[in-house]
Specification:
The protein has a domain of 183 residues. The chain has 362 residues and is an all-alpha fold. The mean pLDDT is 75. α2 packs across α7, α3 runs antiparallel to α7 and α9 runs antiparallel to α12. It has 14 helices and no strands.
């Protein structure tokens, strides 16, 4: 090998590295578009069963079926916004979430009430908290900044919503759009396998996301019953937010539990801590635990077994590993990504013993 070949090899390697860097930089700059496409793909998968029903059962043509489906989804979104936005605004004012000083005063009031209650039972909570310096670590500006960020980001949300709806429409109308695009990179002798994989992935993920919607609705219903039963203000908003948080595996239920404890306690500000605030908070928390048990042992196993056809332990390990590698985002996308990978492996590596074991139920 002469010096010219070595130089060409070095230049070729540098060119490849530069090309990869430019592609990654390009993807980074258009990350919002990638997010829009990903959300639109989920929306289209949720709407797919409705489109198929309208086409097969009611004999709608494809375009009309897509228009009706998108109209239903938009109507549902508008209904949720019109129902919850006024309640969220009211809840924000009630809890003084937009006022840091008032929020801190409310938390301080609850803290003082707790100290008085536990001191009456000979438990020195104040000393324990002071030694841990837990209260000094609380950043009271997190919630107001979060809500203000939502308000300031309304313009971006509007653009994003329009983009998602527009992309979703064509994903539903031209269901083979993505599949045909991928055909460009698939060898001719593998095209039939890719088509089979694509159809199977769409079917499984469509059932999975529809199942998640039912899971959120079931939790929303259970949470609402618990909160209304104990007279918590704005029960619908709290139940809806906690049900949505449940979409984040394992971490979501923990966050929603903390959220419901805080919101329940602040709902009864000014009333007796020992006679009203503490008992109601405990009862609500127990109700949430029961709802979570129903979800964990009834809803989730049905969704995973009927949609993605994976064992609960298998799903648990996948979510944990994805969480370690990619954080919260990884936990959210772990199940659909793993399902897609399993289908592709079964189609292209069906003779492999490990693949056969992993995909035996597909």
């Amino acid at each position: 090998m002469n010096s010219k070949e070595i130089a060409n090899g070095i230049l070729r390697a540098l060119g490849i590295i530069l090309g990869i860097f430019l592609i990654l930089y390009f993807l980074y700059k258009i990350q919002s578009v990638i997010v829009y496409i990903a959300i639109a793909a989920v929306v289209s998968l949720i709407g797919r069963p409705v489109v198929l029903f309208l086409r097969r059962k009611l004999k709608f043509n494809n375009t009309l079926a897509v228009i009706v489906t998108m109209s239903l989804l938009v109507s549902l979104l508008i209904g949720l916004i019109s129902l919850f936005i006024p309640l969220i605004i009211e809840q924000s004012h009630n809890l003084a979430l937009l006022n840091i000083d008032q929020l801190q005063a409310n938390i301080q009031y609850l803290y003082e009430q707790m100290v008085i209650y536990f001191e009456a039972n000979q438990i020195d909570v104040e000393r324990t908290l002071q030694e841990s310096k837990l209260l000094d670590k609380i950043d009271y500006s997190i919630i107001p900044n979060f809500l203000n960020g939502i308000v300031s980001g309304f313009g971006s949300f509007t653009i994003g919503l329009f983009s998602v709806l527009f992309i979703s429409f064509f994903f539903l109308k031209d269901s083979k759009l993505f599949e045909n695009g991928m055909m460009t990179f698939i060898p001719d002798n593998k095209e039939s396998r890719w088509k089979n994989s694509s159809a199977k992935i769409k079917d499984l993920l469509s059932r999975y996301f529809v199942g998640l919607l039912f899971q959120v609705l079931i939790l929303f219903f259970l949470y609402t019953i618990v909160l209304v039963s104990f007279g918590v203000h704005n029960a619908l908003v709290i139940a809806f937010l906690c049900a949505l948080l449940n979409l984040i595996p394992y971490v979501g239920p923990l966050i929603s539990s903390i959220l419901v404890i805080v919101l329940t306690m602040t709902s009864f500000l000014g009333q007796s801590f020992s006679d009203v605030i503490l008992p109601k908070t405990i009862y609500v928390f127990i109700g949430f635990i029961i709802a979570q048990l129903i979800d964990n042992f009834v809803s989730q196993p049905i969704i995973f077994s009927k949609s993605v056809k994976s064992h609960p332990l298998e799903i648990f390990l996948v979510i944990i590993i994805a969480g370690i590698l990619f954080g919260i985002v990884g936990m959210v996308v772990a199940v659909p990504s793993y399902t897609a990978i399993k289908v592709i492996l079964k189609e292209f590596l069906s003779e492999n013993k490990i693949v056969q074991r992993l995909t035996k139920d597909l």
